[in-house]
Amino acid sequence: MNHDAYVFAAYAISALVIALTVGWVVFDYRGRKADLATLEAAGVRRRSEEA
Amino acid sequence: MNENVATGWSITALANPTRFISIADKVIPWLGGLAALAIAVALWMGFNAPEDYQQGVTVRIMYIHVPFAWLAMFGYSMMAASALGTLVWRHPLADVSVKAAAPIGAAFTLLALVTGSIWGKPMWGTWWVWDARLTSVFVLFLMYLGLIALNRALDDPSRAAKASAVLALIGFVNIPIIKFSVDWWNTLHQPAAVFRMDGPTIHASLLWPLMISALGFTLLFLTLHLMAMRTEILRRRVTAMRRLAARRADKG
Description:
The structure holds 2 protein chains of 2 kinds.
Chain A: H1 4-41
Chain B: H1 17-48, H2 62-89, H3 94-124, H4 132-153, H5 157-171, H6 174-184, H7 204-251
C-alpha cells in the first residue's frame, strides 16, 4: 500500500507551522523595534539613558 | 561599583538586558544558519536512507516527529529551569525566558501530536488513542496553552512572572510521566528506541539522519527562543517608556 500522502502531509503541515512560528517571531521583533524607534523619535528616553 | 559588574559569558553578565541583546544579536545569525544547514542535511539524508522493512516509507515521518516530541519536552524543561531562576535567584531574564519559550514549545508540541497522528493512521489504523503517551503529551500541550494564557491575563509583569513560574514547576511533573509512560503502562505507542540504557535499537542508516534532524531542530528552537527573548526585552522597554511619557505628560 502506498503511504506517500501521509509522509507528504506530515512534512507539509510541519513546514507550515514552523514558517508561521518563525514569521510571528520575526514580525513581533520588527514591530517592537518600530515602537522603540517611534518613542525615541518623539523624544522619550529611558531613565537609564538620561544624564 | 564597577568592580561588582561581572564581565564575560557568565550568567550574571547576561543579567544585564542590554548586554544580553548585544550578545543575542551576534549569536542569532550563526545559530539560525547552523540550524538551517543541519535541517537541510538531515532532510537529504532522511530521504536517501532506506525505507523501514516493516513501516516502509512512513518511517520518514520519524525524522520530524521524534525531534518535535523531544523539543516539546526540552522546551518545557527549559521553562521549568528558568522558573527556578525566577523563584530562587530572581534572575531578571529568567521570567523573560519562560514567557518567550511557551509559544515556541507549544508549536513544537502541536507538531509532535499532529505528525504522530498522521503516522498513527497508516501504522496503527487510527489517528488517535487515549493511551498514556498520547494523553500525557496532550496534557503537556494544554500546560503550554495555560502558561501563555496566564501570562497574558495578568497585567503586572512581576505577578505574572511568579504565577507562571509556579505553574511551570508544578507542570514539570508531567515530563518524567511522558518519558516513562511507555514503560509504566501498556501503550499503543512504542517504547524508547534511541535514549535507552542498552543503547539505540535503530539501524545506523536511520539513526544518523534522525540525530542530525534532532540537532537541527534543537538549534532552530534555541534561535527562536533567543529571538523571542530579545523581543520580550524590547516589549518591556516600550511599555516602560510609554508609562514614563504618560507620567511626564500628566505633570505637564
